[in-house]
Write a structure and sequence with these properties.
This protein is mainly alpha-helical. Helix content is 58%, strand content 8%.
Amino acid sequence: MNNLNDISVSSSYGSIAGYTQNEIEKYFYYWIKHTAKNKNISEDNLLLNMKDYYYGFCFDGKTKVYNPFSVLNFLTRNCLKITSILLLLHRL
C-alpha cells in the first residue's frame, strides 16, 4: 500500500478525470441538441458557451478536459425531459 503510483501528471492519463471535446460532441450529442433548442441558440454557440464555463482543466500540462460534474449538472438541468425519458428507457 505504500507503493502508490501518482498518475495525476502522467500524459497517459491526462483525460481520465474529465470529458474531452470529442467526448462531449460524441456522447452528449442529443443533450447538446436539445439544450440548444431550449435556449434558442445554435449547437455551435452552446458548445462555445460550455467551453467558456466548463473547459480548461488540465492535469498533464497539455490535455484539456471539461469538468464532468458541471457538464452533467448543466445538461440535466436543461434537458429534464430527455433525461427522464432516457432513465425510463434504461429501466425497461
